[in-house]
Amino acid sequence: MAKQTPKKHQSPFRMSCRELVVRPEDKKEVPVIREVIREAFAPMPFSTGQEWQLVEKIRQSSGYLPSLALVALCDGVLVGQSMISLLEIEDKKKPHNALVLGPVSVLPDFQRRGIGQELIRIGIAAAKRMPLPVMVVVGDLAYYSRFGFEPAVPRSIHMPFGFDEEDYLQVLELKKGALKGVQGVIKFPPSFFDEKGDLL
Ligand SMILES: CC(C)(COP(=O)(O)OP(=O)(O)OC[C@H]1O[C@@H](n2cnc3c(N)ncnc32)[C@H](O)[C@@H]1OP(=O)(O)O)[C@@H](O)C(=O)NCCC(=O)NCCS
């Protein structure tokens, strides 16, 4: 698959950051990214505390797409990250390649300034240049609908195990009409699980 690098992006959100740059992560930023994820998720009641491990396992896996693993720098300081990686949606043993968005993190002091939205919008724009039909996300529709995500279950895309999928599984069509050809059960790659078999 052709891997493309999104252009360095200058954001219109200048009220808080004089300069917001969103670009693919650099390997030497891994320790800082780990801390950003930890701090962003720490106050969240649903957090497993392991989201940083998920990102690190995805990075070591064949589903890692370097051009879609983004960081946000506010005046040169790394304050956010987003990960888009590969998974499959399996339909009666026929696999469809797809993308999954997440985790996304912004340091608490920098939240609600549009940084999360910039990371996601730029990631989606880059993903649309890839030959893949859809992207899924496990998250709140109230947030993700602004990017074009819609509930996945009415489109016959399901979680592989007991989960409140009607509320939290969302899907985005990356190519016009692509959802017509894709349905089935999400097959998370091994990088998404801890050693006990629970989702990270
Ligand atoms: C979710 C997150 C990445 C958003 O980043 P951000 O920079 O604060 O987001 P933005 O400033 O671009 O957008 C803020 C908007 O998102 C909304 N929002 C943020 N998190 C939300 C959530 N979980 N559900 C619904 N809305 C949410 C805010 O209410 C705000 O809405 P408004 O613009 O209508 O007021 C950030 O809040 C974060 O790191 N949270 C902790 C980790 C997490 O929950 N990640 C998402 C799951 S992977």
Automatic annotation (TrEMBL):
Q: Which InterPro entries does the annotation name? A: Acyl_CoA_acyltransferase, GNAT_dom
EC number assigned by the record = 2.3.1.-
SUPFAM superfamilies per the record?
A: Acyl-CoA N-acyltransferases (Nat)
- Kind of enzyme, top EC level? transferase
Q: Name one Pfam family in it.
A: Acetyltransf_9
GO MF annotation, one: acyltransferase activity
What's this protein's name?
N-acetyltransferase
Organism equals Anoxynatronum sibiricum
